[in-house]
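Quick one:
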Amino acid sequence: MTGAALLQGAGFRRLFAARVLSQLADGVFQASLAGAVFFNPEHVTDPRQAAAGFLVLYLPYSFVSPFAGVLLDRWRRQRSMLACCLVRVPLVALVAALIVTVGTQGPRSAWLYVAALAVLGISRFFIAAAGAALPHVVDEDRLVNANALAGTSGTVAAFVAGILALVVRGALPATETTDAALALASAAAYLLAAAVLLRFRADALGPDTQAAATRWRTESARVVRELADGARHVRALPVAVRGLAALTAYRLCMGSLTLDAVLLYRNEFADIHGALPGGQTGLAEMVGASALGILVSAFLTPRVTGRIGKPAWVALLLVTAGAVVGGLGPSYKPLAFLLAGLVVGAVGQGVKICIDTLLQEVVADEFRGRAFAFYDALFNLAFALGAVAVAFILPTSGRSIVVLEVTAGVFVAAGLLYGRAERSSVERLGVEAR
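Output:
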């Protein structure tokens, strides 16, 4: 089914619009943070400082997110997503004010990172809710296409908005006021997403069952029990466990490569000018290449999985990423990193589309919010840990062939192991059927 056909459904069209608007705002907001933290000319970015930034922004929510997933299975998802949009507006305003008044350095800057963490954490909660809600607006046989269109469009919107924000920042004076203004610009898109969500009925996006409200103490105990129930449910689904393991390996590699790219463009490539420059303009070009790769993957994935299946496509993508990173990266040329960004972006989106769909297919709706919130937590935790794992190995320049080759090896190993595990599972099912 084509994207145009999917968009004819009013429910999918509204959920799609809300997600794209929200992620567009996320892209602008994250670009303002990147400018303030990594590309402020008054700061020198080293590996440990950059990795600490990733930890601050990704790690805490990774521990909270599974508990939030229980709420997605108890609260009306439409109401949850609407609240996410509205709450982020004043938080963004607070971040903008803190960028101007306290900056990104020194003890008082901790308040800035806490506020930024709140915005990004709510954004991840929103995306988890959107993933859990998708089967309520499309039929099961259309989920691959729907994930390809919704997930890819949201990711590309974030990438494009972030690129444009970085380009605008590069054309303006590199001051705290510029970064604060960019942060504030994201609030308008959050409000537009809220307006779209108001067009849904409160019960339109699930969950199918909803427990009655209870006292807070009773509710808290029940949340813990239901979280454990959700974990047992997912653990009992080998397809889901293997998919989450493959995605975790990919995100570990992405954390490593992202830290490396930030350091390279900030330091090693800083004096390169021309068509493929260093600095934030060059990093924006690399992000743009990744966005193009995401679009290519969104086109290819539904077609290829229809022929060879989702597990085989995931395995092939991971091995391809390893071959490209290991082959192109050690040259340490901007063009090589641009091409690698294109391929790795395509790989990441293809893997995510397949794993999203596998979870939606095998996880029961009453557990789906918990599964997607846990999935989202793993997505962020693995990314942060991947950055930390190489922070003490990478030099300030970002140039390390060892880090690139080890990362490439992890990609390849993950693809081969996942493909082998899936083939073994199919063979066992065939034997049992006979």
